[in-house]
Amino acid sequence: MSQQNVGNVINRLLTDEELRMRFALDPVDTLAELHLRGMALTPEEIDVFVQSDVRVWFGETERFRVWYH
């Protein structure tokens, strides 16, 4: 497990619009691509990313949270 790799994946998802769109459509393939680029994740870390609410990566959850309060 590497916190640095997890941080790098999070940073890429938040800052790279094209990657974010590919992740929204096919998270497993996108994470496999990142793995090939040196951002290896454990199976548990992959599960967390795959099960994450895609709106998080687009900044949508904050907008919903504000609207509901």
Describe this structure in words.
- The chain is mainly alpha-helical and 69 residues long.
- It is 72% helix and 0% strand.
- The protein has five helices and no strands.
- It has helices spanning 3-15, 17-25, 27-36, 43-51, 60-68.
- The chain is globular, with a radius of gyration of 12 Å.
- Mean pLDDT is 86; it is low at 64-69.
Short description:
The protein is mostly helical. The protein has helices spanning 3-15, 17-25, 27-36, 43-51, 60-68.
Record keyword descriptors for this entry:
single chain; 69 residues; mainly alpha; 5 helices; 72% helix
Described by strand count, sense and barrel closure, the largest sheet is: none
Q: How confident overall, as mean pLDDT? A: 86
- The SSE string, one letter per element, is HHHHH
Total helix count? 5
- Helix percent reads over 70%
Overall geometry comes to: globular
Determine the structural class based on helices, strands and strand pairing: mainly alpha
Give the distance, in angstroms, between the N- and C-terminal Cα atoms: 37 Å
**What ranges have pLDDT less than 50 throughout 5 or more consecutive residues?**
64-69
Rg, Å, rounded: 12 Å
